[in-house]
Request: fold
Amino acid sequence: MNTEQMPDRILVKGNEAVAYGAVDAGLRCYFGYPITPQNEIPEILSELLPEHEGVFVQAESEIGAVNMLLGAGACGIPAMTSSSSCGISLMQEGISYMAGSHVPGIIVNMSRGGPGLGDIGPSQGDYFQAVKGGGHGDHRNLVLAPSTAQECYDFMFKALDLAFTYRNPVMLLGDAIVAQIKEPVRRVPPAGTRTPEYLQSLVEDQRIEGYGARGKNARPRLLKSVYLAEGALAEHNRLLQRKYADMRKEALFDCEDVDDAGLVVVAFGSVGRIARSAVRQLRKAGHRIGLFRPVTLYPFPDEALSALARGRRFLVIEQNIGQMAEDVRLAVNGASPVLWHSVMPGLFIGANELVEPILQALNG
Amino acid sequence: MLRYQDVIIAGFGGQGVMLIGNLLAQASMEQELEVTFIPVYGVEMRGGTANCTVVLDSLPIGSPLVREPMSTVVLNEPSLAKFQPRLRKDGVQIVNASLIARELVDTTIRTVYIPAHDIAHGIGNVKLTNMVALGAWLKATDALPLKAVREALHRVVSAHYAKLIPINAVALEAGYNFADSYAHKNTQN
Reply:
């Protein structure tokens, strides 16, 4: 692309938008190992980060990458890794250690079909892995689910903010569609963005325990996830649980036409936007249907869903064999019926394929 | 100009399917439209089959994928076999007559049967087949002005190939003009 006369919108893939967003938000380090369908992220960062006095390392493996992320995060450095499904599985030990040690960091999962090696097509089969912890022990990742290239860009700012505010791993969960789609993107920080300097001030604040020593005069601090003394681990977990409870206020969602709707379709990420087309099509035909799209998958926007429950039924559509549907049921807690439609992993579907299942749910 | 349009562009890997998809998306963006471009290809590249979907609209786009497209550009027979049955009955297809037998074309569907490869050869480079086909699509759908797409070539073609921009513009125009006279011919019949 000719950069000399850069228009105010640029046409980029979701992956490219992630890379631009990361650099613009103040990312300093990237560590990763190649895998489809996310390769444009390291490709672009390998060029941009050194230009911005950052560090790009192609690690020897995903395990190497996530532990480099842990190391950078422990020093209070804005850093990220990215991979896809099977690569993210390899990283789970490191992510659990980061969560256990209150270490911030960003992990991007442009997921692919599974289980096992699966395929490189679209899939939302990593929902449970992303929102239920993924690694061992009681831990939670903050999880953001972009559905457009613009959100890929914007959410990198959000991800960095959340990671440093809560000193916690933040995961961006996309798929082959979100990663490979090319759309116009405005490369400007989203409204409400806090500056990289503010985030850095959280790190430099010596009153807060938690980050490793930096500079000559810093006092040494210990970052660890091992607590062997009697009761120490219980206390550590209580602290983590308080933090996770605090995070609940970060729940985000997007909804459309729910006020008079008898049926609300719940879908996230790429399926969320495909469902939006189907919902709009049926609205035009006079059906009272709305759309609810969770933007944060953890914390899950369960209060907002619960508030909608009275007088409405829900249809969860996701590209897996029924994962988010469980969280919707928990949110609604029996107050209204929660139906579910599965799109099989690896398929490329359009809005028309969702019209029939939605009509069935409406009439059934 | 239409408010919403979608197209599936399909052919062999190496025929430039992704390039014209990108070009169309870039031109749409520069026309202040919303647009999505999504490529679908196998693990193989050159010689395999490849297709992409471009959706343009004046409103934010929901689904970037379409099962039953409003239009298609098909450059080889496997692509015709795959996408002709899915094309909307009121849709239009641009069919590469140089590689696709006429008897395979569904006569109930509005079709521009264009010898894109031969036209490109006449211009001086068979690699311009894709541009000829895109030119025909622009005329057949009236989705974007030819000028907008010609201008967008400067952003899509890399600096290394910049010297080829004028001949690509000629190919776009040749396809556009073919579809124009084709439409007139069909009206007269």
About this structure: Chain B touches chain A through 25 residues (CB under 8 Å).
